[in-house]
Amino acid sequence: MILRKKSLERIKKIHLLSSRVNAENHREKLLHLARKHIDEIEQLYIKNNPHADIETGDLAVLCFELILESGKNLDEILENCFLRYERKLKQLLAEKKLQF
Asked: Any idea where the domains of the chain sit in the sequence?
């Protein structure tokens, strides 16, 4: 289990509340909010504002919601993504002839 049970339950509850607020266009609203958060995060990092980390956490929650919106298992998706990232980074390092 990647996420703790309590965290996963909270994300699911947040997703339920969010889907009630944005009933008709939930996925589109989540994508819109994600784009807004990315813009805000970029601006905060430019200003070296530590609030960028909070906004990045908000973006993560939005991304988790998008996965749940697709009806997928969040832990399985995250595990798959971790494996893919690790494999890709190791490949890039090997291409640069660096050792991991």
From this structure: 9-69, 73-100
CA-wise closest residue to 21 among 9, 8, 30, 32:
30
Going residue by residue through the chain, which has 100 residues, state the pLDDT in tens, using 9 for 90 and above: 788 999 999 999 999 999 999 888 999 999 999 999 999 999 999 999 999 999 999 999 999 999 999 999 999 999 999 999 999 998 998 888 755 5
Kindly report the pTM of this predicted structure.
0.88
* CA separation for the pair 35, 50 (Å, rounded): 19
Query: Is residue 64 within 8 Å of residue 70, measured between CB atoms?
Result: no
